[in-house]
């Protein structure tokens, strides 16, 4: 099992957009930009039930999350592991991410009837580069 060091956690805690890669049912890869945070030793992000990321992870829980420091192209963290889907607390998580990334208390892009879900990535492998 991989482990995030304190420097990797610090980078993931900054309001830097990450990209997440999931596996489509045909085996091809699907990458999207997301907001992320750290919860203990896990990386978390949030999506809506029914979206591609959630559907892919129900079929195949393998996922990677990567962040690149916009001030140093050699400062990065990439986490690969298993994504666990969590409905409980997902609205609070997206509100926390909205606070981190937008400076607002409530996620402003909710759609009527949308159900939020949090993806918890338990690291199997961690690649960390402290930069130049």
UniProtKB/TrEMBL annotation:
The keyword Oxidoreductase applies. InterPro entries: F420-binding_dom_put, F420H2_bilvrd_red/Heme_oxyg, Pyridox_Oxase_N, Split_barrel_FMN-bd. One of its GO terms (cellular component) is cytosol. One of its GO terms (molecular function) is coenzyme F420 binding. It comes from Streptosporangium roseum (strain ATCC 12428 / DSM 43021 / JCM 3005 / KCTC 9067 / NCIMB 10171 / NRRL 2505 / NI 9100). The keyword Membrane does not apply. Residues 5-127 form the Pyridoxamine 5'-phosphate oxidase N-terminal domain. This is Pyridoxamine 5'-phosphate oxidase N-terminal domain-containing protein. Keywords: Oxidoreductase.
């Amino acid at each position: 099992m991989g482990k995030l060091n304190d420097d990797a956690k610090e980078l993931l805690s900054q309001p830097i957009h990450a990209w997440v890669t999931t596996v489509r049912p045909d085996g091809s890869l699907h990458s999207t930009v997301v907001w992320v945070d750290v919860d203990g030793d896990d990386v978390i992000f949030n999506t809506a039930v029914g979206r591609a990321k959630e559907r892919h992870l129900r079929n195949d829980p393998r996922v990677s999350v990567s962040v690149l420091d916009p001030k140093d192209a050699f400062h990065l963290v990439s986490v690969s592991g298993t994504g666990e889907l969590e409905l409980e607390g997902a609205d609070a998580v997206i509100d926390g991410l909205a606070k981190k990334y937008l400076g607002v208390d409530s996620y402003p892009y909710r759609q009527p009837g949308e159900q939020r879900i949090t993806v918890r990535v338990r690291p199997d492998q961690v690649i960390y580069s402290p930069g130049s």
